[in-house]
Amino acid sequence: MPRPRTARAPRFAAGCLAAALLACPTSCSGGGSPEPTAGATGLGDRLFPGAGNGGYDVAHYGLELSYDPGTGRLSGTAVVSATATQDLTRLNLDLAGLAVSRVSVDGRTARTTRSGTELTVRPAGALRRGSHFDVTVAYAGVPRLVTDPDGSHEGWFRTDDGALALGEPVGSMGWFPGNDHPSDKAAFDLTVSVPTGLTVVSNGELAGTRTAGGRTAFHWRSTAPMATYLATVGIGHYTVSRSRTPGGVPLYTAVDPRAADATTTAALARLPEILDWETGRFGPYPFASSGAIVDHLPRGAVGYALETQNRPVFPGDGDGPAVDVTTLVHELSHQWFGDSVTPRSWQDMWLNEGFATWTEWMWQEHDAGVPLSRSAAEAFADPATWSFPPAAPPEAADVSAQPVYARGALVLYELHQALGGTTFDRLLRGWAAVHSHGNASTADFTAYCARLTGRDLTPLFATWLFGTAKPARL
Ligand code: TRP
Ligand code: ZN
Question: Are 269 and 263 in contact (CB under 8 A)?
């Protein structure tokens, strides 16, 4: 039976599909394997259609970088190890700015072109579906920040003593070439060399340091799969502390002393207690270590904390504390909801922010006796909560807007009311366990709820998750 040629089309952006068809003459539709075609230049994410690339699945990033804080120049090599998911004539990587000097595939020089944030790589020979390959990219330059549709910035921030890299949603392409979409998670080995005396902190665990010729290289390893938007690097003068939570999770925390205001210091002192409390609520902590990165940045440069994998980042820009207890509770909650269970696409963002906001409410009840009903009532009363349904941010600029956070948390509040505390606790833990170290969508969540409870929750989701109107009451 002939395989329909358009079977994969809906995942492709229109332009990419046209390119794929051009590269594949009509004879493709006959029997046998089709001619190899170009990997799509985007994954067709409804909100970020150009993010990520089609035709391959990354297993590992090996980044060997060198940074000069004096000039802001970053240089090095990225080895992207992947498996082809189709026969490929060429494939794309996402990279914003930076100059590419050489690209090879499995050691053989490949031709490349660049257009916007797409780096197109043409290997000497086609890559067969199912084959493993390494793309090695040598690159250098002063990274430029990525500006989001909502006006916020991410990418490689230059600081007065080093740098700080943040990636949500599409900032990782500002400092390394890759498949910059949450659906393609991979392990990382990151080695950054800096002038001796500076510290480099990142995700994962410190696998070693090496000093030679006035420079020190720090090797950080993340064995658990990580979405590109969760990768971070901090370079600077930090006070480093290592300890363990009472439950035994190793901690590595790097704090720029200039960002260590009293609120921040007090909040970080509670990190072990918060992580163990969340473990009690959500199930085993998903990573081999935890901690935090607190960095000093120019006023207003970042404006948000980020749940970078296993070591969240808190920028201190002198405008209020770098982190308070509530923000710490929020970013640590993301270690389960976002980092381990990662959204399939950007419109599934409420699975991150709704859960992390809900965790704040649970913590306030636990720590200060604030009833869940009061937190929910406050969110319910705020008009900003109701501008769109949490499962359907209308535009890319809306992925970090209030409904994603507050209305997302109200979905969980309603489930909590409907199911009761015991079943609801099982649901949270089960959700974290079933999709641990993977990806999940809103449809996966509603299906999981139905399966676990055996109840028809369609009306609840229709009202709270998908509905546009504000319900009459909580
Ligand atoms: N995820 C961050 C938090 O939990 C907020 C954030 C930063 C964000 N950048 C974003 C959310 C981009 C969505 C998109 O605090
Ligand atoms: Zn968040």
Answer: no
- 330 CA closest ligand 1 atom index: 4
Per-residue pLDDT, 33 = 63
Cα distance between residue 29 and residue 31, in whole Å: 7
Which amino acid, residue 450? A
CA 203 from chain centre, in angstroms, equals: 12
Token pair of 200 as six digits: 């480099």
If you average pLDDT over residues 392-396, what whole number do you get?
A: 97
Q: Quick one: average pLDDT of 397-416? A: 97
Domains of the chain: 35-154+163-233 (2.60.40.1730), 238-335 (1.10.390.10), 342-464 (1.10.390.10)
Query: What letter would DSSP give residue 368?
Result: H
Q: What is the pLDDT of residue 14?
A: 32
pLDDT(106) > 80: yes
Which backbone phi and psi does 357 adopt, to 5 degrees? -70, -40
Point out the ligand 1 atom lying closest to the alpha carbon of residue 353: 4
**CA 445, 308, 310, 44: dihedral to nearest 10 degrees?**
40
Could you tell me which residues are beta bridge partners of residue 14?
A: none
Please tell me the residue having the least CA distance from ligand 1 atom 8: 400
User: In testing the pocket of ligand 1, which one of 146, 152, 166, 168 has its CB within 8 Å of the most ligand atoms?
Assistant: 168
Output the ligand 1 site: residues, CB below 6 A. 152, 168-169, 304-307, 330, 349, 356, 399-400
Q: Per this entry, what is the length of the chain?
A: 474
Helices vs strands, H then E, count in the chain: 11, 23
In three-state form (DSSP H/G/I as H, E/B as E, the rest C), the secondary structure along 327-367 is: HHHHHHHCCCECCCEEECCHHHCHHHHHHHHHHHHHHHHHH
Which ligand has its closest atom nearest to the C-alpha of 397?
1
- Give the tens place of pLDDT for each residue, 142-188: 999 999 999 999 999 999 999 999 999 999 999 999 999 999 999 99
Structure tokens at 331: 């970013």
Q: What's the whole-number mean pLDDT along residues 64-82? A: 98
Mean of the per-residue pLDDT values of the chain: 93
Atom of ligand 1 nearest to the CA of 349: 13
Q: Model confidence over 213-233: pLDDT tens digits?
A: 999 999 999 999 999 999 999
| Contact (CB, 8 A) for 232 and 162 | no
Pocket residue to mutate for ligand 1, from 313, 334, 353, most atoms within 8 A of Cβ:
353
Give the C-alpha separation, 220 to 231, whole Å.
Answer: 11
CA of 396 to the centre of ligand 2 (A): 16
pTM metric for this prediction = 0.93
Mean pLDDT across the stretch 347-371? 98
